[in-house]
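Changelog note: in this version the structure field was regenerated for every chain. One regenerated record is shown below for reference.
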Amino acid sequence: MKIVSACLAGINCKRDGKSKPCQKIIELVKQGKAIPICPEQLGGLTTPRTPAEQKNNKVITKDGKDVTAQFEKGAKEALQIAKLFNCKEAILKSKSPSCGSGKIYDGTFSGKLIDGDGVTVKLLKKNNIKVVTEDEI
């Protein structure tokens, strides 16, 4: 069993209120092999929501609001779901401040990528859950 970003499963939960459907992910969910999650929603953020990026170990929205606590809560909830279903792998949305693995936006809202992991990815990896992005499947 895997956990997957809900937006990749076609669920309208991205910050802009849309999804980013990935047919491979949708098939895994339909086959009962994956559970869709959205850490931002699990952390209490609304959809749609103001864009946010990581900067200096915090998650800050484009208008300057600190949403680190919501991202951390969502990460903990995502981990709880992964543990409940004994998930050993996650397929999460690339570049996201929550779900990005390996590359995330740099915190300037300019579209520049830097090496790093999203808040949820860091927690999952710390708990020995393998994380890949939709670009790697």
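Spot check on this record: The radius of gyration is 14 Å. DSSP finds four helices and eight strands in the chain.
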